Amino acid sequence: MDLQQAQSLEQFKGQPRLPKFAVPKRYDLTLKPDLSDCTFSGTVLIDLSIVHATNFIVLNALELAIREVSFTNSQNRKYSPSDVVVDGDDEILVLVFDEALSVGDGVLGISFSGILNQHMKGLYRCTYMDGGVKKNMAVTQFEAVDARRCFPCWDEPALKATFKITVDVPSELTALSNMPVIHEKLNGHLKTVYFEESPMMSTYLVAVVVGLFDHIEDTTADGIKVRIYCPVGKTDKGKFALNVAVKALDLYKKYFSMPYALPKLDMVAVPEFSAGAMENYGLITCRETELLHDDLHSAAANKQRLVIVVTHEVAHQWFGNLVTMEWWTHLWLNEGFATWISYLATDCLFPEWKIWTQFLEVTTGGLRMDALEKSHPIEVEVHHARSIDEVFDAISYEKGSSVIRMLQDYLCDDIFQRSLSSYMKKYACKNAKTEDLWSVLSEESGVQVNALMDTWTKQKGYPVLSVKSEDYILEFEQSQFLSSGLSGDGHWIVPITLCLGSYDKRKNFLLETKHDRLDLYELSCSSDGNSSLFEEKNQEKFDEHLWVKINIGQTGFYRVKYDERLTARLRKAIEDNCLSAMDKFGILDDTYALCEAGEVPLSSLLSLMHVYGKELDYIVLSRLIDICYDVAKISSDAIPNSVNDMKQFFINLLLFSTERLGWEAMSGESHLSALLREAVLKALATFGHDKTHEEAMKRFQTYLSDRNTSLLPVDSRRAAYIVVMRNTSTVNRNVFETLLNVYREADAVQEKTRLLRSMASCPDPNIVLEVLNFMLSDEVRDQDIVYVLPGISLEGRETAWRWFKENWDLILNKYGASLLLTRFIRDIITLFCSHEKADEIEEFFTSRLSPAFAMTFTQSIEQVRIKARWVENIRQEESLQELVKGLACSG
């Protein structure tokens, strides 16, 4: 390469997107995986349009050996590149031609080879058991930017093309891809499988799976064949997912007024998978836990999670696959909408689950992440391919889906559905940006949606509304909410909903300025027009009893801080059972967030929590329990002498519900009761409730001798496993060894997962160290670290951090710069709550930061510092320890 060429190549380095000299239209891809040697080879013929005369063709390739390259133009003239440059840093393949390629069509042919990696991205290998023998299978995971690890391509979502795929595989195995098989040709021990050509789609949605499976199938009302591929002999465990998938396809066809675009939909349970599931067009891949339902081993939470995952991935066949984001900046159009509509679909299929109340947990996840200074806008700039994975976070999913729900609530369901149908029709088989959706919604609704929503998607953060009551006037002030307690400078157009003393007296309006006032006179008038609430004789009654709730049903993505008078009235309304579960959740959640930010003292939060002692609604108790966990952890650093009293107070809060639920399911009980039993027993086990510990150990011993005993049903097992681990120590490790044997003997993935979630909860740091080393062993699949790490006990955090530092190189090599690596960073770092530890961790990572986890790291450090400030605030509260002691004695 001469100096001039080298300088010309520099123009392609460090660019987030490929140059547009050439645009792909069609890929004819042949893959030949060798499952014994864990390698693959292939050829790809790419139909191109050269749109500008050029001496360069630039496309993506990573970790591929390029064998042969040629370009043939429409006059059948063949060009061979004078240089082939593979740039691993920028993940590009640059083909240099001495003679410029002229504008027009042609075919680029490339032969290549690569390694079936173990990092669960690109074309990778994973293992399964066949008759007691461990064997390899091949799976693809291309989202976000890993199609380039499998074949050279224009690996950007906007560069859609059709795909004709052929694979050579061992004859006894099943080969699957996006489209149905046209033909199979046997050749000794191998077979060549030819698939139909796909419609236009993005590279990240291309998929191939090669392995040994059984399957079951059904057909939708309009003839779409749906199959669930399961491990051999386990097709019965795919029936529930099949039923959900078929119903979801029919439901979305009606909702979007648009049929499913492919002739078939396969869903495959894959034994090793880094995410939960992936929406590849026509070939959805999932973790086994997310697709297989086992009546004996699937808890209510497993069943619900399966429905959410299946409806989410099926929704992507429209939102994401048919209409695709133009660039990763608009990822939320895929993930936010699929998350939101998965709850809509689940509510249609299982209305008794009241799933929209549980959507509040999604909103809370978004609110927590977006209260960080190191958050990012929904529409986020992406400057490096490896940083894209980090955008698959609580902002794209949880905040994205929450602002969609807020907008749906503001516009009303009918207009929203009609708009989405129009959007699907307009952009089918194309790419879209956020503003394209706003344009369609504005057209259908007559509302300037872009002006409203730009404040929510183009800037990070959200507001807290400070609300004061003065002479029947409500005063509103919005400011950016930050968990650090610092002030931000964001400004939003906020859809406000409120009610006054009753859900019959409601008002909706837009808060467009920093300050606003609302006269309650009109809202307080009774239905016959009389303003009896404001008559002189009723003034005292109004002051005492008339509560105001802002953000009805928590449909808005913001927090509310009430003045003391309004707060007192709301507390009375909770005591009198005047509020819905969603509003009780919201008041509790906002108060917790304000407490963490230093806006409300911990004593006020604890006093509010005390009001929830007779609560029985799942979503409210679930949030209460999570807050108990967080307060117990922060208290161990802030007021260690009061931790036992604090835990006793939390136990008192939960005894009312646990007495009604017991350990075993009651005949005909609801899905929500089963969810609540698991959550309450697990909390009592964690807080050290003596009676729960005694009962758990007794039932666990019965379970050891009879795995089918009714004394330890599936929804109670997690609590029992936590009790086992909380009673394990270096000198009393027999029960731990027993639990490990239960894990080794378990066949059901749900049971293995449940055990892994509990193992690191031991208070003995030496046992936690054993569990962490066990997690890295061959006995635990790489994908399953996501279950172990969030369970690390507070007592084990120093050990976990030391272990993480000592094993950094091993972990980086084993898991690569992947989603799994971010879980190590987040789950271990955020256990701490001191500035000193944050400094120490930052120093360790000074020379180790990578774009693949930089955002996760900075957010994790920020969370540590937020908790450090919270500890300082708590230590300054007067009479707090006396309050805690009093609450502990009030049970």
UniProtKB/TrEMBL annotation:
CDD domains: M1_APN-Q_like (cd09601)
Membrane topology listed for this record: Peripheral membrane protein
A GO cellular component annotation in the UniProt record: extracellular space
Residue ranges of domain ERAP1-like C-terminal in the record: 547-865
Keywords from the named record: Aminopeptidase, Endoplasmic reticulum, Hydrolase, Metal-binding, Metalloprotease, Microsome, Protease, Zinc
Cofactor note: Binds 1 zinc ion per subunit.
Lineage: superkingdom: Eukaryota
Protein name: Aminopeptidase
Organism name: Davidia involucrata
